[in-house]
TrEMBL record:
Keyword hit for Repeat: yes
Domain Rhodanese span(s) in chain numbering: 38-141, 182-283
Keywords: Pyruvate, Repeat, Transferase
GO molecular function, one term: thiosulfate-cyanide sulfurtransferase activity
Membrane-traversing stretches: none
Gene3D superfamilies: Rhodanese-like domain
Superkingdom field: Bacteria
PROSITE patterns per the UniProt record, alphabetical: RHODANESE_3
Keyword Iron-sulfur recorded: no
Coiled coil: none
Organism of provenance: Mycolicibacterium fluoranthenivorans
Name the UniProt record assigns to this protein: Thiosulfate/3-mercaptopyruvate sulfurtransferase
Amino acid sequence: MSENPVVGARELAAELAGPQAPVLLDASLILHRPEFDGDYRTDSGRHLWQSGHLPGAIHVEVDADFAVSAPTHNQHPPAQVLAERAARFGIGPDTPTVVYDSTGGFWAARVWYLLRWIGVPVRVLDGGLAAWSAAGLPTDAGSTQPLPVPPWRVRAIRDAWIDLDELREIDSSAANLVCALSPAAFTGAEPTRYHRRGHIPGSRNVAARSLLDQRGLLLPPTEITALYRDAGADLDREVLLYCGGGISATVNALALVAAGIERLRVYDGSLEEWSADPSLPLTVG
């Protein structure tokens, strides 16, 4: 089983008091619920970070600092570009890093997935800022500036992504494809941020939020794997994850890795890209 990709609040507090404290990234960002089809709106979470964050935490604008905007929102940059951007935040190839947010944990999972892709030893604070505060641990306000490190070359790249061209070539009904959106979004019962409602034919639904308890902590591994198996996913094969725009799917990836499941990839374009092509089918209901 791989190293636990999450760290508890008190364990992290002990590490921060030690000689090799990890770099802390606050990935808070606000993604608004769509009020009508095509309604995609975000707001920076910088003000949330400034009002209260873990001591020494640096804010990262995930949709700008660690993303490119084409062909869809929040696309991952090339690996070397991501490494160069990480260096600006004090992260080298071997720098222990912990990511959290105060907006539900999804953006922290996204940064975790990106940095893990290029080999950085990164974890997520389980439960985010809320869990830290619930443990009675101190927070700071105001701004913290990063201490950049020299640019570095990527040494190890995981097989982390599946793109549209590859997905077109496989039978989606047999592809072990899992959608991380809510059941209502999966069935098309509520507005979508993207072009059309529904899900990729043949895909299963394991909502990202269903993998967290009421406190925002990851469920135990046995409960995570049970949710996947109940949905009809085959955990003995590679799991392909998607959502609306490649964010929720990384929560599912985090949960799977925490449960010891490593064979997975994320379709980064997700429904934003898929639904933009009228020739590609979507299932509603």
